[in-house]
């Protein structure tokens, strides 16, 4: 004797493969659930990967919090840094100067000039190591900003054709104003901007940063913007980046109204958009599972119609309404279980070979489906989060079971006389 409940045994017997139209419907139901679950896992995992990679790239280049004055510049930034460091959640503080400059260099042929207008970021090398990972992202040269040293983003270096050992001229807004004023006065001589030596090239992993940023020492940045001993703001690292907004609010109260404290989430709205889109996509894609659940409903209705005499016989032998209903719910449970199991396997397999698939499609079509210049990543990111898998599998199972409730309940209400009338 089998120890399984007779409801489950009967459901498994009904699902035994046969060369009938019902078996085809059952197979279609399983495939529907499989595709729905697989698509959900693939899309949510890719979006989770985007979220993780973008967060790592953003936080590798930028600090978690940014403290700036509401007006002017920070003249007492060292004293303010001491106050910020007293916060138990702060792990690092570094001064920063940030502004746009004009960089000019000569191409290798020595004739045509290459020009770009990136953002120059002035940093204190020692303090910056505690708030970002830029010193670890070099792909060429050294992280040496002493003297007139400058480190360029990888895309910016390629655009300027400037690499370690080359010299570039950096024009600040102040320099350009002086040159323009001298020309308007008819003066033939004026102070020329300083030349900088390219010491290194960094690759942050994020295209926007590589193409639009150059690093110089804090002293050189202060000179470029005629700040004296002042800075534009302070970069602050905290122990938990995901609670950055909470820490920003607490730090803002501590520092007072004269300063503004913003988090990396506020300065990078794209990150928030990705997280919102992930949640929205989760709800939208569940409709695919909902459509697959209608297939289970159709399968259950077909079984109820075909097994009407069996239902009547069970009721005549003393089966309760609950037991009859359990037979068809168990049948739906088995179909849902195999569909979810196959869908999970297919989704995880697709995630594992995602980049190989993209490479194959690029080879066959000649079209790059995931251009780094657009998305900022060299490969398609993906991250499988167990909690997401639990939500997808659990939610799909509940939807599929609910889809079978009405036809199963209808079967449980059949009367033996009506069910066996034509037998």
Write structural notes for this entry:
There is one protein chain. With 423 residues, this protein is α+β, with helices and mostly antiparallel strands. The chain has helices spanning 6-14, 21-61, 77-85, 125-128, 154-160, 173-184, 207-212, 218-224, 244-255, 264-267, 269-306, 308-316, 321-352, 354-365, 372-375, 386-403, 405-412, 416-419, and strands at 65-69, 90-100, 102-106, 113-116, 119-123, 138-141, 149-153, 167-171, 195-202, 213-217, 233-238, 259-263. Strands 1, 2, 3, 4, 5, 6, 7, 8, 9, 10, 11 and 12 form a 12-stranded mixed β-sheet that branches. Helix 11 crosses helix 13 (321-352) and helix 11 packs parallel to helix 17 (405-412). The model has no long low-confidence stretch (mean pLDDT 80).
Give a topology summary.
Blueprint: H1 6-14, H2 21-61, E1 65-69, H3 77-85, E2 90-100, E3 102-106, E4 113-116, E5 119-123, H4 125-128, E6 138-141, E7 149-153, H5 154-160, E8 167-171, H6 173-184, E9 195-202, H7 207-212, E10 213-217, H8 218-224, E11 233-238, H9 244-255, E12 259-263, H10 264-267, H11 269-306, H12 308-316, H13 321-352, H14 354-365, H15 372-375, H16 386-403, H17 405-412, H18 416-419
Parallel strand pairs: 5-10, 7-9
Antiparallel strand pairs: 1-11, 1-12, 2-5, 2-11, 3-4, 3-8, 6-9, 7-10, 8-9
């Amino acid at each position: 004797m089998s120890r399984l409940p007779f409801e489950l045994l009967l459901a498994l017997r009904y699902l035994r493969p046969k060369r009938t139209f019902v078996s085809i419907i059952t197979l279609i139901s399983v495939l529907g659930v499989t595709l729905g679950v697989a698509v959900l896992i693939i899309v949510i995992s890719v979006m989770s990967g985007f979220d993780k990679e973008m967060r790592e790239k953003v936080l590798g280049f930028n600090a978690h919090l940014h403290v700036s004055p509401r007006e002017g510049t920070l003249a007492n930034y060292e004293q303010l840094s001491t106050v910020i460091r007293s916060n138990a959640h702060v792990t690092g503080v570094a001064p920063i100067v940030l502004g746009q400059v004009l960089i000019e260099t000569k191409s290798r042929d020595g004739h045509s000039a290459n020009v770009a207008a990136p953002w120059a970021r002035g940093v204190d090398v020692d303090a910056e190591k505690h708030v970002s990972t830029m010193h670890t992202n070099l792909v060429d040269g050294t992280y040496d900003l002493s003297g007139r040293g400058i480190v360029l983003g990888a895309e910016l270096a390629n655009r300027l054709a400037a690499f370690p050992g080359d010299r570039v001229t950096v024009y600040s807004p102040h320099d350009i104003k002086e040159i323009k004023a001298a020309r308007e006065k008819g003066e033939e001589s004026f102070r020329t901007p300083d030349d900088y030596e390219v010491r290194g090239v960094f690759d942050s992993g994020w295209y926007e940063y590589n193409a639009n940023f150059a690093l110089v020492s804090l002293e050189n940045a202060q000179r470029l913007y005629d700040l004296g001993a002042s800075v534009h703001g302070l970069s602050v690292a905290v122990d938990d980046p995901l609670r950055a907004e909470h820490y920003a609010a607490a730090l803002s109260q501590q520092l007072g109204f004269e300063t503004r404290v913003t988090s990396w989430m506020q300065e990078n709205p794209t990150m928030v958009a990705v997280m919102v889109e992930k949640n929205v996509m989760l709800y939208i894609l569940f409709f695919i599972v909902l459509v697959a659940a209608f297939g289970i409903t159709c399968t259950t209705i077909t079984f109820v119609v075909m097994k009407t005499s069996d239902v009547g016989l069970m009721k005549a032998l003393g089966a309760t309404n609950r037991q009859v209903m359990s037979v068809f719910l168990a049948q739906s449970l088995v179909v849902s279980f195999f569909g979810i199991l196959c869908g999970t396997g297919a989704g995880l397999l697709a995630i594992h070979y995602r980049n190989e698939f993209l490479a194959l499609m690029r080879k066959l079509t000649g079209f790059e489906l995931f251009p780094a210049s657009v998305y900022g990543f060299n490969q398609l990111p993906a991250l499988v989060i167990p909690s997401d898998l639990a939500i997808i599998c659990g939610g799909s199972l509940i939807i599929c079971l609910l889809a079978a409730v009405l036809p199963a309940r209808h079967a449980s209400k059949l009367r033996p006389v009506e069910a066996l009338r034509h037998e």
